[in-house]
Specification:
This protein is an all-beta fold and 126 residues long. The chain contains no helices and eleven strands. The strands form two sheets. Strands 2, 4, 5, 6, 9, 10 and 11 form a seven-stranded mixed beta sheet that branches. The protein is globular, with a radius of gyration of 13 Å.
């Protein structure tokens, strides 16, 4: 089991930056592949980025590639999402997610993740 708590969301102007954090607690965190998803009002949950347990492999949605960067610090049990050049279209609730034990590779669909945080709101004004 792993518990996830997101933080760092807020209101930012278009073109600005924000860094989201996901603090994890539980067993063998370093062996969990992690992901970030987002859900805007009236839309389905959308894949944003994922990172393998080792941090050597990452995956990004085309819409955020080059602007958002996922990273992890296993020693601190924390996953980050650095968000640069933010657009109003990035406005959403952002969720941190972890795959189950034994799944170290990246995944791009919500169904591949077993544990979820409560989300943090990111609002980008134009």
């Amino acid at each position: 089991q792993v518990q996830l708590v997101e933080s760092g969301g807020g209101l930012v102007q278009a073109g600005g930056s924000l860094r989201l954090s996901c603090a994890a607690s539980g067993r063998t965190f370093s062996n969990y592949a992690m992901g970030w998803f987002r859900q805007a009002p009236g839309k389905e949950r959308e894949f944003v980025a994922a990172i393998s347990w080792s941090g050597r492999s990452t995956s990004y949605a085309d819409s955020v590639k080059g602007r958002l960067t996922i990273s992890r610090d296993n020693a601190k049990n924390t996953v980050y999402l650095q968000m640069n050049s933010l657009k109003p279209e990035d406005t959403a609730v952002y969720y941190c997610a972890a795959r189950g034990a034994g799944y170290a590779g990246v995944g791009t669909t919500p169904a591949l993740y077993n544990y979820w945080g409560q989300g943090t709101q990111v609002t980008v004004s134009s």
